[in-house]
Records
---
Amino acid sequence: TSFSTPKKKKRDDGMREHVTGCARSEGYYKIDKKDKLKYLNNSRAFAEEPPADTQVRTCPPLTAGRRSEQRRLLSSFTGSCDSDLLKFNQLKFRKKKLKFCKSHIHDWGLFAMEPIAADEMVIEYVGQNIRQVIADMREKRYEDEGIGSSYMFRVDHDTIIDATKCGNFARFINHSCNPNCYAKVITVESQKKIVIYSKQHINVNEEITYDYKFPIEDVKIPCLCGSENCRGTLN
């Protein structure tokens, strides 16, 4: 059975008009190069037009998943003020630009790749939540394995975050007797978290530091921060 080929009609914009009303029902056909170029130029010009309200358009829209995540955090956030909630929410969806590289204080360090205002959440200290008994066992095992640096952060009396083998960039933050950040324990979803806050304005490529606040012990650990009011030891 032979079908008569419909005549190629063109619309006002130069593109071919679909006689059957649907491009899929007309089968494969080639588009003229001139028409294709004209269409691409028109679409490109439309895409490059600046939006009428740049302040609204430039912000990425919140998806349904992100909105539900914000509501869940809002309902479960306890033990801190509303400002902490907003900052933690922003930190979760928009992480600060950070990098780790060689430090003049000790080995590796964490540096800011963007300006950070004062009293902002910089990064969460991520690791495994373990008990004191497990921490003592792991500390001995790490010494036997030759891991000299300690990446354990105490949350409370019986909870410690171990970031030695399961952590993020926060474990590279060095100690300083005159730090530009401080650590704070907050509670989210009934779980305690450690977040590093900026103590002052932090410039680009400036190293992020905080006071470890180690307990006083007989065996002293030398401090190499080099600040004017350096105590000389970490403990």
Note: Confidence is low (pLDDT under 50) at residues 52-59.
---
Amino acid sequence: ILLLLRNPKDVATSFYHFSNVMSPLPSYETWDDFFVAFMTKKMPWGCYFEYVSEWNKYADHENVMTITYEELKQNPVLGVKNIAAFFGISLAEKELQSVVERSSFQSMKKNSQKTHGAFGNILFRKGHVSDWKNLFSEDQNEKMDKTFEERVGGTKLGTKLKYQVYCKA
């Protein structure tokens, strides 16, 4: 099992934008309305913190590899090598480079019409790390920090998310 995680502030930011353009999902008048729903477990696919807490139980299992979106953005070559090794796939250098190039956010966004049809424009927005800084108020930032610490801060997956690096203003 490959478990891909992303920091909660960027998850909230991304899901806010996604929700407001994906008609079957609830849309939100404001970011503030969305933030309240996100923090009070009123998301269509459940609570981020409960999801991470539940997966934390399996973090040490040999058949589970956890990687973060931020790790893949920072060093995509190493990320692909680690994923391939986990699944027992041997990649020649040329194959490795092809996977890295084709799985980059820019490449996937560019090809999204071919791979995902009209849904591609909705699915691929920015792909940046720390876009949350454009939406979070100081109060929201503090609430998210507190909730993260209380719910998953000291866990293996909480540590893996490098919250101090990616989620502190």
Note: The chain has one domain: 2-165.
---
Amino acid sequence: LVIFLFLLPVFFFQMTKSVTNPEELGGLASQMTNDYGHLALQGRMAAATAEPEEIGFQIRTRVQELGHGCIFLVQKAGALQICPTDSYTKRELIECARAVTEKVSLVLSALQAGNKGTQACITAASAVSGIIADLDTTIMFATAGTLNAENNESFADHR
């Protein structure tokens, strides 16, 4: 999902760059449409599994808003292909690309908000793994007899 979000701005940049070569816009618009389709599918799954529910709603809403922005961008690209010398349409295409880039960042922020619990679990799992590794190391040294005992008890008695 995140990969698609990073790819979309590349297409927007190419679209705004293609203002000087409007014949390239059709292929770029087609590619962006395909990428958005994949993004929408992944976004639907991310929204369904997000906790709390309001994060899922936020992901779904922002992906939809991004879709609307993509529609406007494709429409402006088509209009520029029809009239490649129209400077007003060129400016509108660039503005649509900027708006879509903003919407991509909003989708990313919603995904990051939904990812906080996952990141906390990853951090906790990492900390627990570190503790387990430290305990294993301590057990290894204790078994080898290299740790100083406070009294005459052996490690095997406590293990």
Note: Residues 58 and 110 are 6 Å apart (CA to CA).
---
Amino acid sequence: PPPLPPPSAMLTSRGPALCTALRRAAPGGLASFHSSSRRCRAARVAVVLSGCGVYDGTEIHEASAVLVHLSRGGAEVQMYAPDVPQMHVIDHSKGQPAEAESRNVLVESARIARGKIASLAKLTTADHDAVIFPGGFGAAKNLSTFAVDGKDCKVNREVERVLKDFHKAGKPIGLCCISPVLAAKVLSGAEVTVGHEEEEGGKWPYAGTAGAIKELGAKHCVKEVTISFPAHVDTKNKVVTTPAFMCETALHHIFDGIGAMVKNVLKLTGK
């Protein structure tokens, strides 16, 4: 048989019909078949911190896990924190309040963000496709008063605004550890998990949080922290939660569970 003509000649010889079909398959033109520059852009994710340190701010391992998994997922990340005083300062070597100290949530959060952080007042849904809240007692002390007031807690007004704005815009919200209480308080009828509802001999030391979540009007879903069942996805409200350090378990289980949360948040962005 005669040799095939070059591809350019084939396109020409077969007329405009084939060219049209190829362009329909590649809306960006024929070059888009080979150009990575025409791929969908990365998801833009805001991460909201609450200080630096498990007992009075953001749980550092959780924040790090969130950032690693977002990086692996190709997301563009901007970190935020409210520019307010911490509820109090904890000496983490003793687990006791440091009575003479006071610290700022934004300033302390900048330690985790390596200085690249903005005031939470500047966070808008227009600039981001999703928002994630790591855990740590800062979520219950600095982002809300849950640690003191339980079901009668108040949520920082900027945190409340961000949660409501992302929910209204249909953009996903990820939360881990204790931070799902924020969604439970602000988003009526949301489904979240903080793990199990019984302490089970100390494996779930904060199991009582599940009861408070129900009292806030949210639905609590029992979940494991391990990779098999690590996250709950409320598809209606686009809220994704995982227990993380609500469970006494190995660090790699926490890391994997947070990875599942991040993966589902990114999936919900559609990017």
Note: The chain is about 35% helix and 15% strand.
